[in-house]
From TrEMBL:
<keyword id="KW-0808">Transferase</keyword>
<feature type="active site" description="Proton acceptor">
    <location>
        <position position="118"/>
    </location>
</feature>
<protein>
    <recommendedName>
        <fullName>protein acetyllysine N-acetyltransferase</fullName>
        <ecNumber>2.3.1.286</ecNumber>
    </recommendedName>
</protein>
<dbReference type="InterPro" id="IPR050134">
    <property type="entry name" value="NAD-dep_sirtuin_deacylases"/>
</dbReference>
<dbReference type="InterPro" id="IPR026590">
    <property type="entry name" value="Ssirtuin_cat_dom"/>
</dbReference>
<dbReference type="InterPro" id="IPR026591">
    <property type="entry name" value="Sirtuin_cat_small_dom_sf"/>
</dbReference>
<dbReference type="InterPro" id="IPR029035">
    <property type="entry name" value="DHS-like_NAD/FAD-binding_dom"/>
</dbReference>
<dbReference type="Pfam" id="PF02146">
    <property type="entry name" value="SIR2"/>
</dbReference>
<keyword id="KW-0520">NAD</keyword>
<feature type="binding site">
    <location>
        <position position="126"/>
    </location>
    <ligand>
        <name>Zn(2+)</name>
    </ligand>
</feature>
<feature type="binding site">
    <location>
        <position position="147"/>
    </location>
    <ligand>
        <name>Zn(2+)</name>
    </ligand>
</feature>
<feature type="domain" description="Deacetylase sirtuin-type">
    <location>
        <begin position="1"/>
        <end position="236"/>
    </location>
</feature>
<dbReference type="GO" id="GO:0046872">
    <property type="term" value="F:metal ion binding"/>
</dbReference>
<dbReference type="GO" id="GO:0070403">
    <property type="term" value="F:NAD+ binding"/>
</dbReference>
<feature type="binding site">
    <location>
        <position position="144"/>
    </location>
    <ligand>
        <name>Zn(2+)</name>
    </ligand>
</feature>
<dbReference type="GO" id="GO:0017136">
    <property type="term" value="F:histone deacetylase activity, NAD-dependent"/>
</dbReference>
<feature type="binding site">
    <location>
        <position position="129"/>
    </location>
    <ligand>
        <name>Zn(2+)</name>
    </ligand>
</feature>
Length: 236
């Protein structure tokens, strides 16, 4: 309990905070995570292949079938998304968010200084003519009605390079932070987990997660439901 109080006090006192968020942040909104027993990868033999550039090129229908299961258009920002946005919009703190999530819930909650590290499901385009299309168009057909080209999301797939702008923004967000808060992620996916190496030597780190993660720096670990923890964060 003392560690929890210290973590909350750090958030209260810190001026430059960067949140690194993963799938666990969106679970309270009804979006399943990837690797838990109830996650999207459970009982799938090669889930990473289904989310790969190779699958998109070789077996586009199999890729589309899986990626369309990732859509949860009814999902709304939960208390974690909302509290992070409130810290940015209602205080004089400098708040940055770098998220692995592709659901845009941070954006819907109002976060402005946001880097969607792996892209977004909510942006789709045609591989042939490069024209942007709506999510509803993609969900109704995997082929562009104008040119017949195959449609895809703007999610960064396995085997694809990260968007250079997103990578630069993420590194800058970590470099500038006095406090880094890692929330709802196993912190195993590269290069997202490598962002921690860009922290300042004196920057503090808090981890809020259901399970401990492997981290090469000293940190406050708050085990349990992140929603409970974020409800205790005060916004002046």
């Amino acid at each position: 309990m003392e560690r929890r109080k210290q973590a909350l006090e750090l958030i209260k006192k810190s001026q430059k905070i960067t949140f690194l968020t993963g799938a666990g942040v969106s679970v309270p909104s009804g979006i399943p995570d990837y690797r838990s027993i109830n996650g999207l990868y459970h009982e799938l033999e090669h889930p990473e292949y289904l989310l790969s550039h190779e699958c998109l090129m070789k077996e586009p229908e199999k890729h589309d079938q899986f990626i369309k299961k990732l859509y949860h258009l009814e999902a709304k920002p939960n208390h974690i998304h909302q509290k992070i946005a409130q810290l940015e919009l209602s205080t004089d703190k400098q708040i940055e968010v770098v998220t692995q999530n592709i659901d845009q819930l941070h954006r819907k909650a109002g976060s402005q200084n946001l880097t969607e590290f792996h892209g977004s499901l909510m942006e789709c385009y045609c591989l042939k003519c490069k024209q942007q299309v709506s999510v509803s168009d993609y969900l109704s057909s995997s082929y562009h009605e104008n040119c017949g080209g195959h449609l895809r999301t703007n999610v960064v797939l396995y085997g694809e390079a990260l968007h250079e702008k997103s990578l630069g923004q993420a590194i800058s967000a970590v470099e500038n932070a006095d406090l880094i808060v890692i929330v709802g992620t196993s912190f195993q996916v590269h290069p997202f987990c490598d962002l921690i190496f860009y922290r300042k030597a004196n920057a503090q780190v808090i981890v809020v997660n259901q399970e401990a993660i492997s981290l090469p720096v000293a940190h406050f670990f708050i085990k349990g439901d992140a929603t409970d923890f974020f409800q205790e964060i005060m916004v002046d």
